[in-house]
Amino acid sequence: MKTFQARNTCHVSSRVQRLDRRQESRCSLALIMLMSLATLSVMATTQTLSAQDTKTIHVYSVR
Q: Source organism's superkingdom (predicted)?
């Protein structure tokens, strides 16, 4: 028995609309800005938490 396969299933990927250079550049810039904002947010949170940490834990190796 043969299984039925639609004719258009093989060509779905070829119908994907490509971005032009200007749109691609805008998307790249937006992605860089979002990642920079996320990095700054993580750095600020880390700095705030480390400034609030009054109980410093020192780990000493026993020899």
A: Bacteria
